Amino acid sequence: MTARKKERVFRGIAASPGIVIGQAVVLSREKLEITQKSIPPDRVEEEVSRFLDAINATRKELEEIRKRVLYRLGEEDARLFDAHLMILDDRVIIDDTIRKIREERLNAEYVYFRIMRDFHDSLMRSDDEYLRERGLDILDVKRRVIRKLQGAESCLVSPEQGMRIVVAHQLTPSQTIMLDRNAVLGFAIDFGGKTSHVAILARGLGKPAVVGLKDFADQVEDGDRLIVDGNRGLVILHPGKATLLRYRDLQEKYQRFLQALIPLKDLPAQTLDGHKVELGANIELPQEVESAIRHGARGIGLFRTEYMYLARRDFPDEEEQYQEYKRVAERVYPHSVIIRTFDLGGDRLVIGDMKLDEENPFLGWRSIRISLDMPDIFLAQLKAILRASERGNVRVMFPMISSVEEVRKAKELLHQAMEDLDKRGLPYDRNIEVGVMVEVPAAVMILEHLAAEVQFFSIGTNDLIQYTLAVDRGNERIAHLYTNYHPAVLKLIKRIVEIGHKANRWVGLCGEMAADPLIIPFLVGIGLDELSVTPVLLPEVKKLIRSLRFNSMKRIVDEILEEDVAQDIEARLQAYLQKEVPDILEVLLPQFQNDKNERGHSV
Ligand code: PEP
Ligand code: MG
Questions:
Q1: Could you tell me if the CB of 463 is within 6 A of ligand 1?
Q2: Is the CB of 204 under 6 A from ligand 1?
Q3: Nearest CA to ligand 1 atom 7
Q4: Burial 360-393 (b: 16+ CB within 10 A, else e)
Q5: What integer best gives the mean pLDDT of the chain?
């Protein structure tokens, strides 16, 4: 009989609410490494074809990347990929690999890995610097071919194994979006903060998640039993009987709380004294509109279109985008959808699966900057959005705006797109509303000027906080500095609402902050027109708004704007809710309370 493994509790950051109990599937770094397997004689030719298919698929991928680099950076940079293509198509390497697969009857990834490793080592011993520099190209080509052979990413977890809790050091947005959602129970991830993209995606999928667990993944094995407590930011490895019982009870309580919210679905988000706020949903993929409606969203406050790209690593063309945008617009009609143009870059990979080698990607070639540099791709998207606007319920929004020039350039392209549709005789909404995200402090400082250019603003606090406080939103080491309650952040929001409203502009907020129960009284009290949150959190946000008075929220706004320390602001907000809605606070607060504690440790 094996000894029962000791229960251990790990503290991380509560990234997506809910509690799940299940078995782990560990996406360790080693998963992408190579094991040697023998191939039965009658399957050898199949293995050779599998290898050649991987070479062809990699060639396509590299050619695509070369094309995009040429477009963006010019011939000289694009030429770097010629070296990759030459290595990939090297006849000696290909013939050698095929010969060895046949002779030694071994799997293609193992044989290719060995040959490329030897090739790499021999180049590294060369005196020629140019040849030594090709070493990196070899490693890159090797990794790409092997990933194709392993079908990595698309089949990291499959439903056949039963639903599992995904454990990993790090998951990129594209890895996350490619996971089969029917196979995933929840997430326990070492990297990332509350507004990192893996956290946002987990919420979008409605799966409990804890991130920022530091070195948890190293301590777990496939099949280990885990509890992920996405409300409190805890992960429990090898839970004992008593813990399991307690968690089943907590799970049930949380479910009951959610059940009790169902009847709110069709009621407005209206305070006890009659002040109404629009409640929208944030979606990452078009099909999530169904979840938004199920959870009672009136419209879509943010459609993050770049995930359509990340899910397939290629820009969908105008027609494909049009079909998807139209589907969402029709589904929410007569309410509206705010379609945000591609916001790639940062940690959302840009070209193929090549990470742009930038020192500071969040301050680099990101978002509207990419769109303006790639006008063909941007125009295709704008035309698709315009065509979907025919019934008048689509609004278009530009992300990461930091200057008036950027908005003017984007609008120029929008007009160009309109002219093209006119020529083609295609209908669209000529009065489509144009808005910008306010997520860079510079935009706040020039808001009056931006108001002259656009009809609406949506505050992106995920980025606004990171750019204002100089705190990387995805870095778990400094997650304690990333706070919704910093007086600078609250003053910026106040300024945006005041200037926006003075110019008669609609002002919404679509950052993750809109779902933080502690800060909601501030956001409503300050007079925001809309809060837009991930669908699963809509009922909780609505419940809170419907349980409070607008007048008392206005008072709390004045009080906390007097405070100068984030912790004091947080304490005041907590005391306010404790007084007004103790029962709601008891269920919701754990999700927002654990960030100050030390993380990644067994507790
Ligand atoms: C934000 O920055 O607050 C936002 C909503 O956009 P994203 O999280 O996609 O950067
Ligand atoms: Mg943003």
A1: yes
A2: no
A3: 462
A4: ebbebbbbbbbbbebeebbbbbbbbbbbbbeebb
A5: 88
Kindly report the backbone phi and psi dihedral angles of residue 510, in degrees, each rounded to the nearest multiple of 5, phi listed first. -120, 10
Measured between alpha carbons, how far is 491 from 103 in angstroms, rounded to an integer? Answer: 71
Of 374, 376, 309, 319, which is closest to residue 340 (Cα–Cα)?
Answer: 309
**Exposed/middle/buried for 533, CB within 10 Å: 0-12, 13-18, 19+?**
buried
Catalytic residue among 197, 275, 295, 486: 197
Mapped onto helix, strand or coil, the DSSP state of residue 515 is: helix
Alpha-carbon distance of 349 to 347, in angstroms, equals 6
For residue range 236-250, list pLDDT tens digits in order: 999 999 999 999 998
Average pLDDT over residues 430-444: 98
Residue 426 CA to residue 419 CA, distance in Å, equals 10
Of 36-40, 169-173, 204-208, 504-508, the least confident: 169-173
Q: Give yes or no: 510 in active site.
A: yes
pLDDT digits (tens, 9 = 90+) for 10-61: 989 888 999 999 999 888 554 545 677 889 999 999 999 999 999 999 898 8
Residue entry with tokens 């050619």: 63
The alpha carbon of 459 and the centre of ligand 2 are apart by a number of angstroms equal to 9
Exposed/middle/buried for 249, CB within 10 Å: 0-12, 13-18, 19+?
A: exposed
Would the pLDDT of 560 be above 60?
yes
Q: H helices then E strands: how many in the chain?
A: 24, 16
Whether 169 has a pLDDT exceeding 70, the answer reads: yes
Burial of 28: CB neighbours in 10 Å, binned 0-12, 13-18, 19+: middle
The rounded distance, in Å, linking the Cα atoms of 223 and 118 is: 36
Strand ranges (E), 174-267? 184-189, 209-211, 225-229, 234-237
Amino acid, res. 300: I
| Interval 458-484 mean pLDDT | 93
CA 265 – ligand 1 centroid, Å: 25
3-state class (DSSP) for residue 49: helix
**Arithmetic mean of pLDDT, 156-185:** 75
